[in-house]
Protein: FMN reductase
Amino acid sequence: MYATVCTLYIQSTPYTHGVAHTEVFPMADATGGPLRIAVIIGSTRDGRFGPVVADWITGHIAEREDMTADVVDLVETPLPTVFPAFGQTPSDEVVAQLGAVSPRLAEADAFVIVTPEYNHSFPAPLKNAIDWHNEQWHGKPVGFVSYGGLAGGLRAVEQLRVVLAELHAVTVRNTVSFHNYGEVFNADGKPSDPGCDVAAKALLDQLTWWGHALREARRARPYAV
Ligand SMILES: Cc1cc2nc3c(=O)[nH]c(=O)nc-3n(C[C@H](O)[C@H](O)[C@H](O)COP(=O)(O)O)c2cc1C
Structure:
């Protein structure tokens, strides 16, 4: 169980990597209909388990009429790890790489991040993908599906909450976390414990509540930064 705490922080100027994201990738706000969920696969390791977990939660999204999924796989859409200098426009090559990811994050109403735990945190490619973006996260909810050893990836999730708060995102309280995940999933790539499906529903229900609330709020007035 998690405790909820209130925090007050001093806002600083967001980093934009030399280009205002709103100019290059307009933030498309939804006009209604099912919530658009970007499911981000956080691991890029050869032989990774991440897609199994992502397929499972995407299947849950697919069964619902109130949301649709767009799976953002950082293996298929890698992003450079060198940022341009402040005030400098990214090269055409980098703009093309961002073009495969950024508009999809901009168009999302909400996010599900699927993450393993690497050294008590989340994988570097996921941090890189987060850091390339700014407005795309603003005023949107993020839910987590994590997996790992004894801790079930929860240490990665708690660190992600801190990072995403800086980006004006709202993280959903419930998580789905797979502890010792190798013993949880059966040969069909599904968790054998039906409690996992209950947890997925609770997570997606909360994401839906926040997704609608924040989509309506963003439509009513621009997010204050
Ligand atoms: C660099 C690295 C660090 C890891 N650190 C942890 C850890 O701190 N806690 C944990 O539970 N599992 C850890 N693991 C094990 C991962 O949970 C496990 O390998 C998992 O399959 C990684 O996700 P992936 O297969 O999608 O890459 C680590 C794995 C790697 C590759």
Summary: The pocket of flavin mononucleotide is lined by residues 43, 45, 48-50, 116-120, 148-149, 151 (CB under 6 Å). Residues 195-220 form the longest helix (26 residues). Strands lie at 35-41, 67-73, 110-116, 141-148, 170-179.
